[in-house]
Amino acid sequence: MRKVDRKNRQVRVQWALETVGLSTVSTFVFKQFEQDSPGLGMAMSVVAIFTTTALILGLTAFSRKKLMIG
Known about the structure:
- It is built from 3 helices and no strands.
- The protein is mostly helical.
- The protein has one domain (about 1-65).
- Helix 2 (about 25-35) runs antiparallel to helix 3.
- The chain is elongated.
- The protein starts with a helix and ends with a helix.
- About 0% of the residues are buried.
- Keywords: Membrane, Transmembrane, Transmembrane helix.
């Protein structure tokens, strides 16, 4: 139970420090868990992780091609 409390606390701190009117994936996921819809929250987490990974890999490939590295 302590691991869940620790993760919950980390998300709450990030949620409390966000700018008013700004919506992030973490706040959406946290709200879904609060509303007893963890499946939707986990699905959004997976989408965010894959999107971020694809963006990083795409930008890395683009910069290598542009700079002719590798």
